[in-house]
Structures are given as structure tokens and as C-alpha cells.
Amino acid sequence: MLMAAAVLLASVAAHAKEVLPFIENDYATAVSRAKTKNLPIFVEAWAPW
User: Fold this and answer.
1) At 4, phi and psi to the nearest 5?
2) Interval 5-47: pLDDT, tens
3) HEC sequence for 1-49
């Protein structure tokens, strides 16, 4: 059962880039694409502290 869950998780992770097209370090492009498709922008940020 645990192995099946791991395989399923790996499969989902492998296709995540197709489902959620991330744009890294290019805010202008992200805004442009969001406006074109009339979609909101999700910003992920983190800090090591």
C-alpha cells in the first residue's frame, strides 16, 4: 500500500510542471501572461530564517 502511494505521488509530481506552469524570476512575463489569460498570479516566497 505504501509503495502504491509513493508511485502515485511520483507520477503526480512528474506532471506538476505541465499542470502549473511556473515562471521563475520574471515578474513582467508573469503579469503579461496573467493579463492575457485573465488569471490571478500566485507568488511563492521563502526565507532561510
Assistant:
1) -65, -40
2) 766 666 655 555 566 778 888 999 999 999 999 999 988 888 9
3) CHHHHHHHHHHHHHHHHHHCCCCCCCHHHHHHHHHHHCCCCCCCCCCCC
